[in-house]
Amino acid sequence: MITCFFENNNKAFLRHVTVNAMVIKNNQILLGLRGTLNGKPISESGKWGLLGGFFNHGENLIQAVKREVLEESGWEINNLKLFRINDNPNRPHEDRQNVDIIFIANAVKQTGVSDEEVSKLQWFDLDKIPEMAFDHGDSVELYKKYLKEKFPLPVLG
Question: Which of 28, 107, 144, 155 could join 84 in a cystine, given CB atoms 3.0 to 4.6 angstroms apart?
Answer without folding.
Answer: 155
